Amino acid sequence: MGDAYAFDRLPLDDIRPGTTVLVTGPRHEGARELGLRLLAGPAGEGAIVVTTNRRAERVAADCERLGIQVSDDRTAILDCVGQEDDDVLAQVLPVSGPADLTGIGMRFSDVYVDFDGDGIERVRTGLFSLSTLLSFGDLRTVSRFVHTLVGRIDSVGGLGAFLLDPASHDEQAIRTLSQFCGGRIEVRDGDGGSELRARGLPGQPDGWRPFDRSPR
Amino acid sequence: MILCTDPDTDELSAARDALEAGGFRTHGVDSAGAAREALEEVGPVDCLVTEYDLPDGSGLELVRETRAASPDTACVLYTDAGIGEMDTEAFGEVIAEYVRKDDPGSADRLVEIVEHSLAFRSQTAYPLPDDEDARLATLSRYATDPAALSASLDRLTELAAAQFDVDSAAVGLVDSHEERFLSCHGADVDSLDREDTICTYAILEEGVTVVEDATADPRFSDNETLAAAEIRFYAGAPLTAPDGRAIGTFCLQDGESREFDGRDRELLSLFAGQTMEQLELRRRLRETGGDDG
Asked: How many angstroms separate the CA atoms of B195 and B126, rounded?
């Protein structure tokens, strides 16, 4: 199964391969940045980013800013937004839109096989965000999608980080989606800046801990 | 049983051979129509493996139909088609695993994906308890002779319906793909797909689950089965076996949205405890050979 996934300059212990975490927090308080930072691994790892609401160009720029080494042979952006972005360093793969969960899943499988063929066995996958998927599809459909994707990430020993803005959804929806994931990382704006708290993940420190939004 | 659908005879054989070598039983057909017939004949299958291009339709259409009949069927598109050649947009809600035949090692990947999908049941549209396999093993010890208890459980569900003044009260066991009702007072239901029943969620909780208004709950607001049964209110207490695993629920339903206070929850838990005790006594009687029924 390989070594656990490690995180650079974040107050998180390593996470076991095959785990997907739900990252929840308000839109402007660092949850998205944290989700992307979880995808920043050492050289040799691959990253797959599903973007539902931001252009691939901007996502690639965010990835670089947050410590992901973006390149077209080991970074893939599954783009549900549909703007043509020619000069993005990452491999940009189109999906017809955020309601096309079938297309997102198949693109993921395809990229994964490509990465594997290139000898990239460790892959971190981010989904930004589940909130958009829920605004285009019902909870039952999104549940099947999340369950299937979490299962795939588990079967290949990957790492998943799925972003959800809790303010936009009922508690039952959040609870249901978190039940598919191995754990949850909550983000909030604390006294001294952004803070995170890990729940349901073995071996993580208790309580809220401050983190820098950008690795610098 | 795995249903394999592929119009190309050689490719169909190759897929079936790979799966059978992996320990699965398969049935092969060459079109969507033949797949439908097979499903009608043999009933739900564990897994559907299909080509995308079928002479009489699309593999994604077949996945959609198969899931409508049996929601938990794992589905894999095993196909020559690249993503750009498929109309996924029209089937955006379908969701299936995808293995491209011309990728290196594709037959092995197909077997791995089928194995994983079935072992972890990772294509269901609802969450599973962490200890699902052990839970099902526990359940099997109680589910062997359900009819033997129906008279005493019928008394309990009738009492509960009167106590709480609700349309119906039931005792249901949540099996791998469906909930089977041992007793149901006030409604006539034998079983429901697990995807359609609120008890699927109630067995994940330690205490009583209350849904005051199913039409306002995102988990159930589009649930046609509940709508057809005119169920808005639900309360369910898990039937927790002595090993701590929830095998089903004692549950209440009503057509009107309503509240359910702390005392109500306590009383419903007593009904669930009493039911579990009956199930446990019956099991012991059976396992010690003292059961002549």
From this structure: 6
Q: At a CB cut-off of 8 Å and minimum separation 6, what does A136 contact? A: A97, A98, A99
**B124 chain-A contacts, CB cut-off 8 A:** 144, 147
Task: Work out the angle at residue A11's Cα, subtended by the Cα atoms of residues A10 and A15, and round it to the nearest 5 degrees.
Answer: 85
Q: Which residues form the domain of B221?
A: 132-287
Facing residue for B117 by CB, picked from A107, A151, A176: A151
Instruction: Kindly identify which residue of chain A lies nearest to residue B204, measuring between CA atoms.
Output: A179
Residues of B in contact with A96 (CB under 8 A): 88-89, 92
Report yes or no: B61 at the A interface, CB cutoff 8 Å: no
CB contact under 8 Å between A152 and B97, yes or no, is: yes
Q: What is the mean pLDDT of chain B?
A: 95
Residue B293 lies in a domain: no
Report the gap between the CA of A191 and the closest CA in chain B (Å): 34
Q: What is the pLDDT of residues B81-126, one digit of tens each?
A: 999 999 999 999 999 999 999 999 999 999 999 999 999 999 999 9
Run of H or E including B1? none
Per-residue pLDDT band at B293 (split at 50, 70, 90)? very low
**Residue B190 domain flag:** yes
- The class level of CATH for A19-210 reads alpha beta
